[in-house]
Amino acid sequence: MSRVLLVDDQELMRMGFRMVLDAQDDLEVVGEAHNGEEAVEMAARLRPDVVLMDVRMPVLDGVEATRRIVADGSSKVLVMTTFDLDEYALAALRGGASGFLLKDTPPDGLVTAVRSVASGDAVVSPSVTRRLLDRFLGGDAGELRDPSVLDSLTEREREVLVLVAKGLSNSELAGTLFLSEATIKTHIGRILSKLDLRDRVQAVVLAYETGLVRPGEQ
């Protein structure tokens, strides 16, 4: 059973999420918060597996709330937003969120995402990831990070990281590189371990920040 905390300043939105999640045998909503400050307090007290986090809220926004919850190490955060190109969402990912979804995601997509984050995977739509990174890591994003941080990767691992950063799923990676999905997962696991990254999202951001992948590249 995965325990979920709902965080949104709109009661109707929380009610809808609760109805969808509580209908699942393996998911339980253990609390609701209507701002980031409440979310931080409740996450520390309830220790949910996943916090379903709105990013635009009064008192304390979801970005800062995400940073505090992830720093505490008590829960994983899945960010929800209305906008598919949202600087708040990218900031939340950089702050440690394990996933990003639009609020109009179908119920089955929401359930799948919560289960994936609870099991330790990152959840971000490849197309949304690419648009976010192209917009907010391109152009005037500042100086690139030293690419030597990638020196520990093998040539194959570097190739996998490039394709992950371009938005390919594991099945697409397997087809492109003529490898099994199990092998792809092994490569990604090694990349995360070598680079001391928490998940796929952080790997994508690092690929852009080091210049391994440039905004707008296909």
From TrEMBL:
Entries under InterPro entries matching the protein: CheY-like_superfamily, NreC/VraR/RcsB-like_REC, Sig_transdc_resp-reg_C-effctor, Sig_transdc_resp-reg_receiver, Tscrpt_reg_LuxR_C, WalR-like
Would the keyword Phosphoprotein turn up in this protein's UniProt record?
A: yes
The protein's matches in SMART domains, at most eight in alphabetical order, are given as:
HTH_LUXR, REC
Keywords of the record:
DNA-binding, Phosphoprotein, Transcription, Transcription regulation
Residue intervals of the HTH luxR-type domain:
146-211
Where along the sequence do coiled-coil regions lie? none
Q: Which residues carry this modification: 4-aspartylphosphate?
A: D54
Q: Which CDD domains match?
A: LuxR_C_like, REC_NarL-like
Q: Any idea where the Response regulatory domain is?
A: 3-118
> Which superkingdom?
Bacteria
What this protein is called in its record is Response regulator transcription factor
* Species: Saccharopolyspora taberi
